Design the sequence.
C-alpha cells in the first residue's frame, strides 16, 4: 500500500509473519438460544450464533430489530433472560460483576460517534484504558504504547490535538486505537459508518479489515450498512423484530433467499449482476 495522508491512511500492510501471529489472538463467541425480555416485550427471541476466532461478523437490521440489545449482552452491560453467551470459553451470562470486569479487558468497544472526551488530547484519550487498568505502567511506557498504536493507525503526530481538531475518519481511528490499548481478543463496533459520506464509510470498512488482519481480533460489527457488510463480512446475520431471520457468508446472503434480505439489498442500491465475479452475484448500481 502506498503512502497516504493522515486522513486517508488506515495502517501499514500486514506481513505474513504478522498475519501468522495474529491468527491466534481472536476468541470464539458462542450465542446459545438467547432470549431477552423486558416484561411482556421480547427484544430478542432464541438467538443462536457462532462467531469464529479472527472473523468479521456483521449483525445487520433495521431500527428496533434488536441489534443494540444484542450488543449490550455481548459486552456484558446486560444479561439474557435465558440462554448463554460463551466468550473465550467463559460463560459471560453467568458471571458476577467482578468477573465481567475481568472479561471486559479482553473486549474492545468502538462507539458509534467515537466517544472521545472533548477536553482531552488524542494521547490522553487513547491512554485512558491503560491508566485505568494498568497502574503498573510508568508514564513514559504509556506514552510509548500510545504512540505505537497511533502510528500503526496512521495518526502519528496527532498526540497533542483535541478531538475537535480531527476529521471524522481520524476520530474513528483514534477511538479504535483506544479500544486496542488493552490488546483485546474481540472488538465490537457500534454503527461504525453512521454519519459518514460513502467514501469515508468505505475507508472505515477497510480499517476494520486491516485491524483484523493486523491484530487477529474477532470483530463484531453492528450496522445498517448493507454495502459495507457485503464488502467486509465473513458472516452476515440479519435481525428482524428480535429474531435471527437470515445468515450466511456474503456470497450466499446476497442471493436474497429471505424477503427481508432482498429488501435490504435493494434499499442499499445494490442490484443483481450477471457477473459471477461480483460478491454474491451482486454489484453496486451507478
Sequence:
Amino acid at each position: 500500500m502506498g503512502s497516504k495522508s493522515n486522513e486517508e491512511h488506515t495502517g501499514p500492510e500486514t506481513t505474513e509473519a504478522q498475519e501468522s501471529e495474529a491468527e491466534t489472538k481472536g476468541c470464539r463467541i458462542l450465542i446459545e438460544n438467547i432470549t431477552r425480555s423486558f416484561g411482556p416485550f421480547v427484544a430478542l427471541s432464541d438467538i443462536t450464533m457462532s462467531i469464529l476466532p479472527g472473523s468479521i461478523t456483521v449483525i445487520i437490521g433495521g431500527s428496533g430489530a434488536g441489534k443494540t440489545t444484542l450488543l449490550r449482552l455481548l459486552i456484558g452491560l446486560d444479561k439474557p433472560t435465558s440462554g448463554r453467551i460463551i466468550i473465550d470459553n467463559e460463560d459471560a451470562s453467568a458471571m458476577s460483576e467482578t468477573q465481567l470486569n475481568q472479561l471486559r479487558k479482553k473486549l474492545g468497544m468502538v462507539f458509534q460517534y467515537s466517544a472521545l472526551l472533548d477536553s482531552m488530547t488524542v494521547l490522553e484519550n487513547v491512554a485512558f484504558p491503560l491508566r485505568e487498568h494498568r497502574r503498573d505502567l510508568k508514564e513514559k511506557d504509556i506514552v510509548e504504547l500510545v504512540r505505537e498504536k497511533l502510528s500503526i493507525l496512521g495518526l502519528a503526530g496527532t498526540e497533542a490535538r483535541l478531538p475537535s481538531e480531527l476529521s471524522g475518519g481520524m476520530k474513528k481511528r483514534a477511538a479504535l486505537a483506544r479500544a486496542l490499548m488493552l490488546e483485546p481478543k474481540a472488538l465490537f463496533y457500534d454503527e461504525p459508518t453512521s454519519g459518514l459520506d460513502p467514501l469515508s464509510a468505505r475507508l472505515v470498512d477497510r480499517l476494520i479489515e486491516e485491524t483484523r488482519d493486523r491484530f487477529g481480533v474477532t470483530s463484531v460489527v453492528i450496522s445498517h450498512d448493507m454495502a459495507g457488510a457485503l464488502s467486509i463480512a465473513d458472516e452476515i446475520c440479519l435481525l428482524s423484530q428480535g429474531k435471527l431471520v437470515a445468515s450466511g457468508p456474503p456470497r450466499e446472503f446476497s442471493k436474497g433467499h429471505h424477503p427481508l434480505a432482498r429488501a435490504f439489498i435493494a434499499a442499499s442500491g445494490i442490484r443483481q449482476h450477471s457477473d459471477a465475479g461480483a460478491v454474491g452475484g451482486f454489484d453496486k448500481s451507478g
In short: The chain has two domains: 16-106+184-284, 116-183.
